[in-house]
Amino acid sequence: MNLISAQEGKEYIIQRIETDDEELDAFLFSLGCYSGEPITVISHLKGGCVVSIKDGRYNIDNQLAEAIII
Q1: pLDDT digits (tens, 9 = 90+) for 2-47
Q2: 33: buried, middle or exposed (CB in 10 Å: 19+, 13-18, 0-12)?
Q3: Is the dihedral of CA 9, 28, 31, 35 positive or negative?
Q4: Domains of the chain in sequence order
Q5: Per the CB 3.0–4.6 Å rule, which of 35, 41, 48, 49 could disulfide with 6?
Q6: Are 35 and 17 in contact (CB under 8 A)?
Q7: Which residues, other chains included, contact 54 with Cβ-Cβ below 8 Å and sequence gap of 6+?
Q8: pLDDT, position 31
C-alpha cells in the first residue's frame, strides 16, 4: 500500500521507496524518509498529501506519495 491510500492520523512504517530516480531517492533520504522509519499522513490534498516524518511536516505530491510504500 502507498501513501495515497493511507488513513489520515494513523502512523505507518515505510517499507520501501519505489523510484529509479537517484536524486529523488537522495531527497527523500534527506527528509528522513527511508525504510523502517515511521510516517503519518496528516491530511490528503487534491494534489498530494501532508505527512509527518520525524519532527517535520512536508507537503508531497501524488507522484511522490505513490513511490512511498508503507
Answers
A1: 999 999 999 999 999 998 889 988 888 998 888 999 999 999 998 8
A2: buried
A3: positive
A4: 3-69 (2.30.30.90)
A5: 41
A6: yes
A7: 32, 37
A8: 87
